[in-house]
Amino acid sequence: MRYSAEYQSKLCTADEAVKVVKSGDWVDYGTFANQVVELDKALAKRKDELENVNIRSAARAYGPPMTVLADPKKESFIFNSGHFTLIDRRMHDYNLCNFIPILFRECPSYAQYVKADVTMIAVSPMDEHGYFNFGLSNTYTKAVCDISKKVIVEVNPKMPRVPGGNSESIHISEVDMIVEADWTMPAIPNLPITEVDHKIAALVLNELEDGACIQLGIGGMPNALGKLIAQSDLKDLGAHTEMLCDAYLDMWEAGKLTGKRKNIDREKMVFTFALGSQKLYDFVHNNPAVASYPVNYTNYPHIIAQNDKVMSINGVLEVDLFGQVAAESSGPRQISGTGGQVDFVEGAYLSKGGKAFLCLPSTYTNKKGEMFSRIKPTLSPGTIVTTPRPMVMYLVTENGIANMKCKSTWERAEALVELAHPKFQDELIREATKMNIWTKTNKKPTLDQMVS
């Protein structure tokens, strides 16, 4: 191989590689499934030699970093995440992880604002042309490598090699050190599909059309929708999404996802990261039907909108009677992140024939068995607004669909009361009246209306 000598000259152990990290450095760990494992273990061993090393990442998929576990007092390592999984959230609960508010599509441009001393990225093995592929997570990886003082790749033969639109790989000439590893890709189990998930998915399914371009978020409802689409009469659907998940496999295997009617990236399933089962990872490996792009392509609204009939389907946590949507925090507790919800809500709206659906169960039950409404007069104190009310298009609960566009505050309140559980409607109306967003012409929905 032409580059074998250069490869060998840069090959070292993880312990040797992490010696380049100095106190006060900012170290990037990669995002989602291309976060490093062996290099993290090696850096954790240097706890007593370092202080104030900031680690930057997003969406842990492998369990807590060894650097965090080795230093719970955050004297040597401070971990920062731009998007939370259950792992990040648990660390945050114990003050072991800090959140970085971001607009996902902007991340490659943040290079002008951030410090990047060392970047460590998990990659697939080098090809005959000297390129390492970023595999399951393109996102803003190349942009960070470009500004980093030192780039270390952790080569893993189990990392899929994913065809890209651009920025899906890095050349050996741009790499300072190479570490070899062999760990299993993190398989993310599908969340169970509830009866409510199925009802919401069925309502959204009725809004879809042949040739629609689908974007799905994560959760039980998108999984349910993927299965319903697979069983439907829909045809020639496309995929342009932030995350590629197993729901797309269901649609693909059923012959529904051809991409033949897309205006850009025809017949390609476009995404910026993939998370799901090993079956999904096997599917994207060397598959010309998929195309990995950086997030400033997949999530940029004016690129999204170049496809017609973009259907964006995402989950949310809470909505107030003004139509403000919270999808990342419950009170001050960070649950997830802004992600691409805002990007795709806007992109779908700009798309010819496009629709953006924000979905939530109308209620939740706490550990004591008490039921609460997810539709509230105002958002719970401390809750972060993810999607501002002027941007919101369709809101969906198991009780129906309401379009918020160009509706006055009293029209929004009426529509949202109809989406709420009957148990909470009277209380919501009372609060709406106090806030002067309920008029004499407003109608309270009857139980019969709710059921129909």
TrEMBL record:
Domain of life: Bacteria
Pfam families: AcetylCoA_hyd_C (PF13336), AcetylCoA_hydro (PF02550)
Listed GO biological process terms: acetate metabolic process; acetyl-CoA metabolic process; butyrate metabolic process
Entry EC number(s): 2.8.3.-
Keyword Cytoplasm in record: yes
Record's catalysed reaction(s): butanoate + acetyl-CoA = butanoyl-CoA + acetate
HAMAP family found in the cross-reference section: But_CoA_trans
PANTHER family: ACETYL-COA HYDROLASE (PTHR21432:SF20), ACETYL-COA HYDROLASE-RELATED (PTHR21432)
Protein's name in the database: Probable butyrate:acetyl-CoA coenzyme A-transferase
Native source species: Desulfallas thermosapovorans DSM 6562
